[in-house]
Recover the amino acids of this structure.
C-alpha cells in the first residue's frame, strides 16, 4: 500500500485546523452550508477505513459528501492538511478511561498503552501507512504523548529514556499489527485463503526443502507451524514481544531502584 506523509501541508494552516483556531472562510451569498471541518474529516476517515489510503482524494471526499471539490477546499486547503486532521481525529479514540494508563503498576499501564494502540490500528489500518516523521502536533496526538509518558513516569528513568520507551512500545505495536493487515490484503489480492495457499504449497515444500542443509529450520518449522497454524501469528508475536519488552523494562527499573547513580545525567547546568 502506498505511504502517505504527515506534515507535508502548510504548517500554519495545519496547526490552525488541528486546534480549530482557523478563521472561518468568507461567507458567500446563499444558504448557509452545514459542512464544516469535522464533517470533512469524518468522511475522509470513513473512506480510508473502507477502502484504504489509495482511495483518498479531495475530489472523492467531496463526492461522498455530495459537494463540489471547491467547496471542500474552502474548509481544508489540501490533502496534506486533511491527512494530518484524520490522524489526530482517530487518536481521540485512545484512552477514554485515562486511569488505565495513569493508575496501577507500571507493567499494567504499559500493557494498556500497547493494547489500546493495537486496537486502534485494527480499526484504522490506513493509519499504519502514514509516515509520521513530521508528526501533526494536534490536541489528540499531544494528549496521547502526555498520557503515555505518564505511564512510565516515576520509574527512575531519565526524560530521554521515558521518550525512548514510549517510542519502543509504539514501534512494537506497529511492527506486529501490520501482519494482521498483510494477511487480509494477501487474501483479497490473491483470492486464496492462507489455508488454501499452504495446501497448494505443501507438495512443493516437500519437494525442494533439504532437511540436511537446513536442519534447524526442519526441526523448528513444523512444530511452530502446527502450533500457530500459519507461517506466523501476528497476535502471538505481539503478546510475546510485549511480554519480553516489559521483562526488560523490569530489569532497567530494578537497576535504577538499586543504584540511582546509574541513571543518565541530566543536561549540563548553564
Amino acid at each position: 500500500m502506498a505511504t502517505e506523509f504527515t506534515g507535508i501541508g502548510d504548517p500554519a494552516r495545519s496547526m490552525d485546523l488541528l486546534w480549530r483556531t482557523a478563521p472561518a472562510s468568507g461567507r458567500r451569498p446563499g444558504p448557509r452550508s452545514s459542512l464544516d471541518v469535522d464533517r470533512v474529516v469524518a468522511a475522509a476517515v470513513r473512506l480510508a477505513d473502507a477502502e484504504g489510503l489509495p482511495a483518498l482524494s479531495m475530489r472523492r471526499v467531496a463526492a461522498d459528501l455530495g459537494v463540489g471539490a471547491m467547496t471542500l477546499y474552502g474548509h481544508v486547503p489540501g490533502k496534506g492538511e486533511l491527512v494530518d486532521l484524520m490522524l489526530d481525529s482517530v487518536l481521540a479514540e485512545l484512552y477514554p478511561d485515562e486511569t488505565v494508563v495513569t493508575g496501577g503498576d507500571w507493567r499494567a499501564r504499559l500493557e494498556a498503552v500497547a493494547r489500546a494502540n493495537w486496537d486502534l490500528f485494527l480499526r484504522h489500518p490506513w493509519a499504519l501507512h502514514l509516515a509520521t516523521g513530521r508528526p501533526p502536533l494536534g490536541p489528540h496526538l499531544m494528549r496521547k504523548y502526555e498520557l503515555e509518558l505518564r505511564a512510565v513516569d516515576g520509574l527512575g528513568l531519565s526524560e530521554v529514556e521515558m521518550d525512548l520507551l514510549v517510542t519502543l512500545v509504539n514501534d512494537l505495536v506497529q511492527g506486529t499489527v501490520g501482519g494482521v493487515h498483510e494477511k487480509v490484503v494477501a487474501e483479497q489480492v490473491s483470492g486464496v485463503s492462507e489455508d488454501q495457499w499452504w495446501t497448494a504449497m505443501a507438495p512443493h515444500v516437500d519437494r525442494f526443502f533439504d532437511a540436511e542443509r537446513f536442519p534447524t529450520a526442519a526441526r523448528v518449522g513444523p512444530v511452530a507451524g502446527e502450533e500457530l497454524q500459519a507461517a506466523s501469528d501476528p497476535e502471538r508475536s505481539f503478546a510475546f514481544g510485549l511480554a519480553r519488552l516489559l521483562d526488560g523494562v523490569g530489569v532497567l527499573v530494578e537497576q535504577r531502584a538499586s543504584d540511582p547513580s546509574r541513571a543518565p545525567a541530566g543536561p549540563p547546568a548553564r
Remarks:
- The first strand starts at residue 4 and ends at 5.
